[in-house]
């Protein structure tokens, strides 16, 4: 089967090239303690992979710039974003809805100036930047460290591995790279003292709830040697994607929040030294991860509280009558030939 995105229904918004797609201050874990962080989504030409067939769940290409931003535009985006930071911002997370290391999105000189500007903020201790593994090279890692070392800032690459199964990544997600590509990039980074954060995807299309939970647990075991932080992304329905098309046909339901609780409980118990995170986007809505509607807000908050504390007890501190329903879904959905049992 060949998967293609539903490009016909993609809706692109006109965007000023000197403003980031999004920016928000938050709090994250650094060296075991909660610190002020800033998340910046730069507006670039977008992910080259997303401009082709793209990943089945990803609508980020809708956020890309209509015309390629100049280096000065990217710096203006950073200035705009920095104005939203707290005076104690210690961690900056850079996304581009693509790859920070793709020279077509962010040129080498712009990358250098962005990193220098972050260094000059004076408070930042760590930068995390997202990239596909094929853009991770010795040269780009060393270039980055040459700047950040001057300011005593650590660097981490974040990669959307999604799953350690090459079959699921290819047939359900259409990601376009392999587990070996990810491990190659992670080892190359480790060799120069750069850590790796891996994003895993709970419930890509075409998988039952239980198959997806089992895939996350085996993916975590496979990924632990290559990542110091693992973020569990709960699939949601984004505009103009194959997942949206399936959802509209009632062939796709986002994951239960209980599935995330269950995965994180087991994962933290097995690998206490790894940081596990999950920030459920659109939790509680039909297009986002959800339970019964009554407990969604509370369970989503429990996932966020766990992410910032790493305290396993928090994950057991929540209950709802729908938990037993989720257990039944886990038991029976495999028999439903791909249909979901409960909306
Ligand atoms: S998920 Fe990442 S790699 Fe896939 S299309 Fe979106 S931005 Fe590109
Ligand atoms: Zn409930």
Give a quick set of tags describing it.
343 residues, alpha/beta, TIM Barrel, eight-stranded mixed sheet, 8 strands, binds iron/sulfur cluster, binds zinc ion
What's the structural blueprint in terms of helices and strands?
Blueprint: E1 22-30, E2 33-41, H1 48-51, H2 71-82, E3 91-95, H3 108-121, E4 126-130, H4 138-148, E5 154-162, H5 166-173, H6 179-191, E6 195-202, H7 209-223, E7 229-234, H8 242-248, H9 257-270, E8 275-277, H10 296-309, H11 312-315, H12 323-332
Parallel strand pairs: 2-3, 3-4, 4-5, 5-6, 6-7, 7-8
Antiparallel strand pairs: 1-2
Helix pairs in contact: 2-3, 3-4, 7-9, 9-10
Explain what you see:
- With about 350 residues, the chain is of the alpha/beta class.
- The protein has a single domain, classed as TIM Barrel (Alpha-Beta Barrel), CATH 3.20.20.70.
- It has helices at about 50, 70-80, 110-120, 140-150, 165-175, 180-190, 210-225, 240-250, 255-270, 295-310, 310-315, 325-330, and strands spanning about 20-30, 35-40, 90-95, 125-130, 155-160, 195-200, 230-235, 275.
- Strands 1-2-3-4-5-6-7-8 form an eight-stranded mixed sheet.
- Helix 4 (about 140-150) links the parallel strand 4 (about 125-130) and strand 5 (about 155-160).
- Helix 2 runs parallel beside helix 3, helix 3 (about 110-120) packs parallel to helix 4 and helix 9 (about 255-270) packs parallel to helix 10.
- Bound molecules: iron/sulfur cluster (SF4) and zinc ion (ZN).
- Zinc ion (ZN) binds near residues 291, 320 and 322.
